[in-house]
Write a structure and sequence with these properties.
Blueprint (H helix, E strand, L loop, with lengths): L6 E6 L3 E7 L5 E3 L9 E2 L2 E5 L5 E5 L1 H9 L4 E2 L11 E4 L2 E4 H20 L5 E6 L5 H13 L3 E7 H11 L5 E8 L4 E8 L3 E10 L4 H20 L10 H17 L7 E8 L2 E8 H28 L9 E5 L6 H11 L4 E2 L5 H26 L9 H4 L5 H15 L3 H9 L1 E3 L5 E10 L2 E10 L7 E8 L7 E9 L5 E2 L4 E10 L9 E8 L5 E7 L4 E5 L9 H12 L2 E2 L1
Bound molecules: adenosine monophosphate.
């Protein structure tokens, strides 16, 4: 019998990453790394031995080098995805996609050692809050690592998927996901038929790292007080900065144990040794603004939910995801705000496991839809299975389900529920185009939103704009991403994510119609088309920016990192 194509789920986290696979009992399991750990620090250490050979360490060993050789170590690279950041090292520069690719390579290498199988197909998770560029960059990172990225899935959706299979009844859940670098908050309807995201919100620069930074700030103040040296910025010293960062994270974790009220911290700088006892109260005090921000963002997300319909902001459960939800302050504050006890559900692994589950589900859906297509005429897409299945006879249906069950080593019931479950996502961003509008009698350039944040995916919107003047040679289509719900907004609130020129036929009068269409796919990729309506000149806008590695550089990156020795 043909071997079942395995799809691995990868949680490519800001601070830690994790890889998962469905086992033979239809259960998502996390694969341990070479150190025997289930999660791997997303930290990369570059060692150049003088001969030009680059050795790479990823994970705990790299994290351990961070204090000793801070300039050779890269952490928190996820925060740079979709930007034009470059890490400079010994005359070479590395983009965020390349560094993320090294983390992926390490996860895959260790997984292959454990399973004895080659990892090819993967689903990678991304924060719901990621925009078009960050998603594209994540996909490219997978490709640079030599992987076939069959899809990206939003982290809260993946968590809901793992959570959903353990539950029978239909529920609306609020997923509060506070990781190392990002905060995502999402409202999701979970049932056996569908995982339906209603709204999503958050901040991709808010996570455990900010808590660590706040503790570091407090430690710096303590240094000043204890030594009387108020002038030196001790964080300018990379070794001291790294050491404080590590101590802060350890102390924060220590204080997450229910009966721990104090954590001792000692550190040295310029022969001064400083001792601090960080209390829980102090920790809560110096980080309260961060916790409050998560509550504020949660309330804003619930306000957005109200716009989707009456009662849409009501939920049955709060699910905690992400390592930082282990902080006791999180649970306490949520109880105070919402009067319900949040459920701590597999915070480190739910996301990777959900991705593996989603990968399996996609394989099953692809198989079933191909089978239906092959047996009964024209092909159907996976999203049509729900419509087509009821039209089959009982015998036809059972035949397909049994065949699939044998192939995937699942029960026919399980195949049926996987094949029939739809996942509907929403966009976390709005997308608009720059146009001239008249405001208070003045002609001004503004962003006109075509797709609005929290629209259900896939979605497609068109709008007609007029040329600005007579005999215009071309029209510039500027694609703008933003987080506003307004129809029209100032350009400062949006970010350019791509542009293109539509060449216009000669002699068009002023205000000739141009139709702009935005098509946002299920995987979050945006297709933009502009048509000059009178003569039907069309331009397909490829959203190409220098904040994502281009195809040519991607090919070079594949070759570049192939030569590295990955420890
Ligand atoms: P994630 O991105 O979900 O892997 O979350 C990683 C973040 O969770 C890091 O900032 C860690 O410092 C934090 N974290 C992990 N365990 C704990 C803990 N026991 N208490 C507090 N924070 C933790």
């Amino acid at each position: 019998m043909a071997k079942v194509k395995k799809v691995y789920g990868i949680d490519l986290g800001t601070t830690y990453s994790c890889i998962s696979i469905m086992d033979e009992h239809d259960k998502a399991i996390v694969l341990k790394n070479a150190d025997g750990e289930r999660i791997t620090p997303s930290v990369v250490y570059f060692e150049e031995d003088g001969s030009g050979q680059v050795n790479i360490d990823v994970g705990m060993s790299a994290k351990n080098y961070a204090e000793m050789y801070p300039n050779d170590v890269v952490s928190y690279i996820k925060r740079q995805m979709g930007t034009d950041y470059e890490f400079e090292h010994k005359g070479q520069s590395y983009r965020a996609e390349e560094i993320s690719a090294l983390i992926l390579k390490k996860l895959v290498k260790d997984a292959e050692l454990t399973t004895g199988e080659i990892v090819e197909d993967v689903v990678i998770t991304v924060p719901a809050y990621f925009g078009v560029n960050e998603r594209e960059a994540t996909k490219k990172a997978g490709e640079i690592a030599g992987l076939n990225v069959i899809d990206l899935i939003n982290e809260p959706t993946a968590a809901a998927l793992s959570y959903g299979i353990t539950k029978q009844s239909d529920k609306r859940i609020l997923v509060y996901d506070l990781g190392g670098g990002t905060f995502d908050v999402t409202l999701i309807d979970v049932s056996s038929e569908a995982i339906d995201v209603i709204v999503t919100g958050g901040d991709h620069n808010l996570g455990g790292k900010n808590w660590d930074d706040a503790i570091v700030e407090y430690l710096v103040d303590q240094y000043k007080e204890q030594t009387g040296d108020f002038t030196e910025d001790i964080l300018m010293n990379p070794e001291t900065a790294q050491s404080l960062q590590s101590s802060a994270e350890v102390a924060k974790k220590t204080l997450s144990a229910p009966k721990r009220f104090k954590a001792p911290i000692t550190f040295s700088h310029n022969f001064d040794r400083v001792r601090v006892e960080l209390t829980r109260e102090k920790l809560d005090e110096v980080t309260s603004h961060l916790l409050e921000r998560t509550i504020e963002l949660t309330k804003l997300m619930l306000e957005d939910a109200k716009l989707k319909g009456p009662g849409k902001d009501q939920f049955d459960e709060i699910i905690l995801v992400g390592g930082s939800t282990r902080m006791l302050q999180v649970k306490e504050r949520l109880v105070e705000e919402f009067g319900m006890e949040p459920i701590m559900f597999d915070p480190d692994e739910a996301v990777a496991k959900g991705a593996a589950l989603y990968g399996m589900q996609k394989s099953v859906q692809e198989w079933v839809s191909n089978k239906i297509g092959a047996k009964y005429g024209q092909g159907i897409g996976a999203s049509q299975i729900q419509d087509v299945m009821p039209k089959l006879t009982q015998v036809e249906k059972e035949e397909i389900l049994h065949e699939a069950a044998t192939y995937f080593r699942l029960t026919p019931q399980r195949v049926e529920s996987m094949a029939n479950q739809t996942i509907r996502n929403v966009t976390s961003k709005s997308f608009g185009v720059v146009a001239h509008v008249v405001e208070n009698g003045r002609d001004v350039e503004r962003v006109v939103n075509l797709i609005k944040k929290n629209d259900t995916l896939p979605c497609k919107y068109s709008q007609i704009f007029g040329t600005y003047e007579g005999n215009q040679v071309n029209a510039k289509i500027q694609v703008m991403e933003n987080e506003m719900l307004d129809e029209v907004l100032e350009k400062d609130y949006a970010m350019v994510i791509g542009d293109a020129l539509l060449d216009l036929p000669f002699g068009l009068p002023e205000n000739s119609p141009i139709e702009v269409t935005y098509n946002l796919n299920e995987d979050g990729t945006l297709e933009v088309t502009a048509v000059e309506v009178t003569e039907k000149g069309t331009v397909q806008v490829t959203v190409q920016t220098n904040s994502v590695i281009n195809e040519e550089d991607k090919e070079k990156a594949i070759l570049k990192i192939q030569d590295f020795v990955l420890n």
